[in-house]
From TrEMBL:
InterPro entries: Meroterpenoid_MTases (IPR051654), SAM-dependent_MTases_sf (IPR029063)
Protein's UniProt name: Methyltransferase domain-containing protein
Signal peptide boundaries: none
Keywords: S-adenosyl-L-methionine, Transferase
């Protein structure tokens, strides 16, 4: 079901100079057409790593193999997303990336969700078209345990069209902004639906888009979503990190803070002080290929992380 009473607009203005889902600012409008024409943020052909998405659309959505590529490229899918959000993640089909399945924490989350009669609940923050939720459902998870949240409600609607499961998916999809306070008109309904109910939160390509202060706000909000008395809650995902943490000036005037293992723990120590909680983190740098984050090039790395109660 889609809860569509929240509307904040997309606060994660993403910006992309490189063909990667981790650096995803929207370029200035005047640059979009030029960047698209040069293939910088928009490619005509499907990427080489699309095969896992093809399999999901065949096996989960029931789309015949001969029709999958046409379905992915259909104007009702990517062009709708592009009209909403002309960025690298859309132009390079990163909204169908299945790389999250290689994260050992995904496998842990899946195993916990598959336990019969448990009350484990999973939230994907910034879920876009909901590919993570559909993969979990295909892997055997009762989709009524799944929740998705994105600041752009139209992404959620396109997800139903893409995966053809409007009548079968039981997940709760919420249009709302994790950076909102959760009070009155700033996320009150999302708080009512999510606060204190989640066991596992997944968040990908999100934290690196924001300043330290905004990351603190987002982390505090996520803590509110977690079950307060569950010692086994977990937040995990991936973002861009760095071997030399700086403040990086975003193209649209924001400061973005990139982390290494030490500063990531510092962030959660600070959040713990503010919320009366304690957290421990795990970090693995994955690779550094194809990432440009203005001013930090050469030091940036993809970074997988886990956050657990200490």
């Amino acid at each position: 079901m889609l809860f569509d009473f929240l509307w904040f607009g997309s606060q994660t203005a993403m910006g992309g100079s490189a063909p990667d889902d981790d650096d995803d600012e929207i370029p200035e409008p005047a640059a979009v057409a030029d960047a698209r024409s040069r293939g910088k943020i928009y490619i005509a052909d499907l990427p080489a790593d699309i095969e896992p998405a093809r399999r999901l659309l065949q096996r989960y959505s029931g789309i015949p193999a001969r029709d999958v590529d046409k379905h992915i490229q259909d104007i009702s899918q990517r062009e709708k997303l592009w009209a909403i959000h002309p960025s690298v993640s859309v132009g390079h089909y990163r909204f169908l990336s299945m790389q999250f399945t290689s994260d050992p924490r995904y496998k842990d989350a899946l195993n916990r969700l598959l336990v019969a009669d448990s009350d484990v609940a999973f939230l994907d923050v910034g879920c876009c078209v909901g590919q993570v939720l559909r993969q979990l459902a295909f892997d055997g998870v009762d989709s009524s345990r799944l929740y998705g949240m994105d600041s752009e409600s139209r992404f959620l609607r396109v997800g139903y069209e893409l995966f053809r499961d409007r009548d079968t998916l039981k997940a709760t999809l919420v249009a709302g902004d994790v950076l909102a306070s959760g009070e009155k008109d700033e996320g009150e309904d999302a708080s009512r639906l999510l606060n204190g109910k989640m066991t596992i939160i997944h968040v990908m390509s999100f934290f690196h888009l924001f300043s330290w202060q905004a990351q603190v706000r987002a982390a505090m909000r996520m803590i509110n979503f977690l079950k307060p008395d569950d010692a086994d809650v977990m937040i995990f995902g991936r973002h861009v990190g760095t071997t030399d943490p700086p403040d990086v000036e975003g193209r649209q005037g924001r400061q973005r803070y990139l982390h290494n293992a030490e500063t990531w723990q510092d962030l959660w120590d600070h959040v713990g002080e503010l919320t009366g909680t304690r957290w421990r983190t795990e970090v693995e740098f994955i690779d550094k290929a194809g990432i440009e984050m203005g001013g930090a090039d050469g030091t940036v790395r993809r970074m997988r992380f886990g956050v657990y109660k200490a």
